Amino acid sequence: MTYARIAGTGSYLPENVVTNHDLEKTMDTSDEWIRERTGIKRRHIAADDETTSSMGLEAARRAMEMAGVGADDIDLIVVGTATPDKIFPATACIIQRQLGVKGSPAFDVSAACSGFVYGLDLANRYIQTGGARTAVVIGSETLSRIVDWSDRGTAILFGDGAGAVVLQAADEPGILSSHIHADGQYETLLHVEQGVSVGFDVTKAGGAFVKMEGNAVFRRAVATFDLMARETVADLDGHLDDIDWFIPHQANMRIIKAAAKKLEMPMERVIATVDEHANTSGASIPLALDQVVRSGKVKRGDVLLFAAFGGGFTWGTAMVKF
Ligand code: ACO
C-alpha cells in the first residue's frame, strides 16, 4: 500500500500589513469591534505586483526546499484558490512554468476556503493510486482584489497570503484520513455574484466583490464543524486524544473556538493565526501549518487535524501524521 506524507511546508505573506487601526481611518469601524467579533488584529495585503501565482510560487519553492525536492521530482501541482490570476490558464499552470516543472498535470480547485483541503484530498488519492509520487499542493489568495473596501461588514475579515505542502509517496501514512463535502443550496449566503458566464461588469451595483450574510454563514459554519467533528470521531474510534494539534480554517476566532468546543479540544492544542493574518481563505490552513512547523511547535510524528469550511458551501477535513 502506498501512502502520502507531508515532506515539506512553505508559506508567503505580503510585506504590507494593514492593522485594524489603519481601517479605522477609512471606514466606520473600530479595533475593539473587530477584535471582539473576529479576533483579527491585522492582515497582510498584496502589493500591486503581487499575485496569487507569485505568492503561491514562493510558498511552493519554500516547501520544495524543506522537502529537498527539485522541479524534476514534481509530478502533480494543485492550487486551491478563489482568486486565480486569470480566468484561464489555471494558476497552477502559471506556477508550473515558473517552477520549471515539465509535463505534470497542473490544475486549480475552486472550493473557496476549503480549496487547500480539497487539493490535499485529491493529491493524496493520486499518490495512493500511483498517479503521482511527489505533488505540490498550494493554497494562495489575493482576496483584497475581491473585497469591497467600502463595506465594513466584509472588508475587515480578509487578508492575502499563500501556503504550500509537498506530498510524497511513502510506505507509512502520512495522510491518515480525509473527507470533502459540499452543499450547493447555500450558494447565495457567501459568493461573488459576477463571473464569466453570468456576466462580468465591475461597474454594476455591488461590483465583483465578496457578498456575505455574516450571521447565517456563522451559524452554518458552526453547525458544519459539528458534522466534521463527528466524522473525525468516527475515524478515530472516539480517541480524540490522538490529535496533537487542531489546525482549522482561520475564518474568525469565534468560529474557531466553537469548532474546538465541538471537538472537545482544549484551546492549547488549537492553532490560531487569524489574529495576524485574518481570513486568507484557501491559504489559511497551509499558511498556519508552515508557521507552526517552522517555529518548532509542530514536530515530526505529531497528529494534525485540518478542518475547512467555505463558500459553496464546501467543507473538508484531513487527519495527518506529520
Ligand atoms: N465595525 C463596526 N460595526 C460593524 C461592523 C464593523 N466592521 N460590521 C458590522 N457592524 C455593525 C452592524 O452594522 C450592526 O449594527 P446595528 O446593530 O446597528 O445594525 C452590528 O455591528 C452587529 O452586526 P452583525 O452583523 O450582527 O454582527 P456579528 O456579531 O454577526 O458579526 C461578523 C459580524 C463578524 C461578520 C459575523 O457575522 C461573522 O463572523 N460571520 C462569519 C463570517 C465569516 O467568517 N466569513 C468568512 C467567510 S466564510 C468562512 O471563511 C468560513
Provide a quick synopsis of the model.
The protein is α/β, with parallel strands linked by helices. It has helices spanning 20-24, 31-38, 52-67, 91-99, 115-128, 152-155, 214-235, 253-262, 274-277, 284-294; strands at residues 3-12, 17-19, 42-44, 76-80, 106-109, 134-142, 160-170, 175-182, 190-192, 210-212, 245-248, 303-310, 314-321.
Report on the architecture of this protein.
The relative contact order is 0.19. The chain is α/β, with parallel strands linked by helices and 322 residues long. 32% of the residues lie in helices and 25% in strands. Acetyl coenzyme *A binds at residues 29, 33-34, 37-38, 113, 152-153, 156-157, 190, 212, 214-215, 217-218, 221, 249, 251-252, 255, 279, 309-310.
List keywords for this structure.
2 domains; Peroxisomal Thiolase, Chain A, domain 1; single chain; binds acetyl coenzyme *A; 322 residues
Name of the top-level CATH class of the largest domain: Alpha Beta
Bound molecules: acetyl coenzyme *A
Terminal Cα span: 18 Å
Tell me the domain tally: 2
Strand order of the largest sheet: 1-7-6-4-5
Examine the coordinates and then state which fold CATH places here, giving the name of the CATH topology of the largest domain: Peroxisomal Thiolase, Chain A, domain 1
Give the helix proportion (percent range): 25-40%
Cα Rg: 18 Å
Q: Order of SSEs, N→C? A: EEHHEHEHEHEHEEEEHEHHHEE
Count of separate DSSP helical elements: 10
